[in-house]
Automatic annotation (TrEMBL):
Key word Metal-binding present: yes
Keyword tRNA processing applies: no
Keywords: Metal-binding, Zinc
Pfam families hit by this protein: dCMP_cyt_deam_1
Gene3D superfamilies: Cytidine Deaminase, domain 2
Organism whose genome encodes this protein: Photobacterium aquimaris
Full protein name: Riboflavin biosynthesis protein RibD
SUPFAM superfamilies: Cytidine deaminase-like
One Gene Ontology MF term: zinc ion binding
Domain CMP/dCMP-type deaminase: 5-127
Taxonomic superkingdom: Bacteria
Signal peptide: none
Amino acid sequence: MTNLAQEISFMQRALTLSHQALPACRPNPPVGCVLVKDGLIVSEGFTQAPGCHHAEAMALANYDQPLDDITAYVTLEPCSFVGRTPSCAHTLVEKGIKRVVVATLDPDPRNSGKGIDVLKQAGIAVTLGLCEDEVAAFISPYLLPNNN
């Protein structure tokens, strides 16, 4: 298990990655994700252009080892619905991720809380709110209803 200082550093790295998503990800929000195993970042991802990988899917695609004991740190609640891409929450479940740390909930009414519910119903341990203020300060302008 990692300590709080390590967890904060992982989420801050995910936040740094989320900046790389802009402007290509628009109109989707800029999200970052890191996968951590044994206290080390083993893969990273950020939201790609519409129709391409979201942050979680990119991080998973960039990691070709067993996903045992992986924790995903993601700046925004994983999506629970299928749009131009598969549901990130369901993908995390299917891949066997055991723990997900989320900075902030997605206010989009299609998702708000539903992604967390998908994870929890699958038995995934979820931590919500790590670095929430810092992440929200960056991502809020890109979220519905501000998503123009």
